[in-house]
Design brief:
Layout lengths: L3 E10 L5 H13 L4 E6 L5 E6 L5 E6 L4 E8 L4 H22 L3 E12 L6 E3 L5 E3 L2 E9 L4 E7 L3 E6 L2 E5 L3 H7 L11 E6 L4 H6 L6 E5 L3 H10 L1 H4 L11 E4 L3 H11 L3 E7 L13 H16 E13 L3 H10 L7 E10 L4 E10 L5
Parallel strand pairs: 13-14, 13-16, 14-15, 16-17
Antiparallel strand pairs: 1-5, 1-6, 2-3, 3-4, 4-5, 7-8, 9-10, 10-11, 11-12, 17-19, 18-19
Helix pairs in contact: 1-2, 7-8
Catalytic activity: S-adenosyl 3-(methylsulfanyl)propylamine + spermidine = spermine + S-methyl-5'-thioadenosine + H(+)
Protein name: Spermine synthase
Subunit structure: Homodimer. Dimerization is mediated through the N-terminal domain and seems to be required for activity as deletion of the N-terminal domain causes complete loss of activity.
Length: 367
């Protein structure tokens, strides 16, 4: 199936644009391609010219009176000849604009083409809403579980990347994430009881079992995440997911909320609780967003199973989401017990943005 290739070329003129002059300058370039022209004139709002080719390709030329000239070209093939024809047309448009308006061009900007509808989806948004094109060259795994869509895509830079319901979770390159959510090497896990919430990629479990803990309990709701990762994310999880039980660990395929409630009722306590379930919600309306309610519940239950001198580790979100992060910190004041926290900013390679991690502990009462 051919993908739609969307190319853009932008010009910013140094002064008010003569819309008619721009249109007349570029008309011959498109007509040479055998494209049929339709022109719309909005008086004080400039021109829109549409050029259509018999093969289904088309171009839009939008001329704004304030000096912005936009060329959008869409073609329905991605073979070498088609890309070459598109580049040649854009080159001719750029050459013609420079020839006619050479003394009045402030900026010329051509972005890499966007491929839409291709077999491999290379485009994933950052947490703060910017579009990133990854160097994805293979769909390694793509399945729907009862809980979410699970994709593992291969990146030339980052290795295999786990993507859950459109959210980039972890790549094989992202040891920095795992280390940060474990305390950045500052903790001694020797002989300690550890509870991991989520973590189906196996990265946290794999790193902690190397540190001689007494026992690690991991609670992951989605068996299919584990199945996909133990096969396709071996650089992250090693062989730790091959068995749900080991000498110093156990993986429970359960919803963590009933498990936390059961542990709290039984009085079971942990030295460390690591929450790898979800990032801080982007929404800043906690009363309207059920994710905030879920997050507060997890926090409260986790504090109930955390030892008095224990630590709770979790990810926050992108450093640019200051409102959401501030709101998260406000939620910490609403827990059943008083807590204190610190945070660390880490560069996670595949996220392509700085990420905030939190360490939370129970406030020590003065005797």
């Amino acid at each position: 199936m051919a993908a739609a290739r969307h190319s853009t070329l932008d010009f910013m003129l140094g002064a008010t644009a003569d819309c008619n002059a721009v249109l007349k300058a570029l008309q011959p370039v498109f007509q040479e391609q055998g494209m049929t022209e339709t022109v719309h004139n909005w008086e004080d709002h400039g021109y829109l010219a549409t050029y259509i080719k018999k093969n289904g390709s088309f171009a839009n030329l939008r001329v704004h009176p304030h000096g912005l000239v936009l060329v959008d070209l869409q073609s329905y093939n991605d073979h070498a000849k088609g890309r070459e024809e598109t580049d040649q047309l854009l080159n001719k448009v750029e050459e013609r604009m420079k020839e006619v308006f050479h003394g009045n061009l402030k900026r010329v900007k051509r972005l890499p083409a966007i491929l839409r509808g291709g077999v491999i989806d290379r485009y994933w948004p950052t947490a703060d809403g910017r579009l990133v094109e990854y160097d994805i060259d293979e769909v390694v795994y793509d399945e729907d579980s009862p809980f979410q869509n699970i994709k593992i895509l291969h990146s030339k830079q980052f290795g295999n990347i786990l993507i859950l319901s459109g959210d980039v979770n972890l790549a094989e390159s992202d040891l920095a994430y795992t280390r940060a959510i474990m305390g950045s090497g500052k903790e001694d896990y020797t002989g300690k009881e550890v509870l991991i919430l989520g973590g189906g990629d196996g990265g946290i479990l794999y790193e902690i079992v190397k540190l001689n803990p007494k026992m690690v309990t991991m609670v992951e709701i989605d068996q299919m995440v584990i199945d996909g990762c133990k096969k396709h994310m071996r650089k992250t999880c090693g062989d730790v997911l091959d068995n749900l039980k080991g000498e110093c660990y156990e993986v429970l395929i359960e919803d963590c909320i009933p498990v936390l409630k059961r542990y709290a009722k039984e009085g079971r306590m942990f030295d460390y609780v690591i929450n790898d379930l979800t990032a801080v919600p982007i929404s800043t309306s906690p009363e309207e967003d059920s994710t905030w309610e879920f997050l507060r519940l997890i926090l409260d239950l986790s504090m109930k199973v955390l030892k008095q001198d224990g630590k709770y580790f979790t990810q926050g979100n992108c450093i640019n989401l200051t409102d959401a992060l501030t709101l998260y910190e406000e939620q910490l004041n609403r827990l059943y017990c008083p807590v204190e926290f610190s945070k660390e900013i880490v560069c996670v390679p595949s996220y392509m943005e700085l990420w905030v991690f939190y360490t939370i502990w129970k406030k020590q009462t003065e005797v």
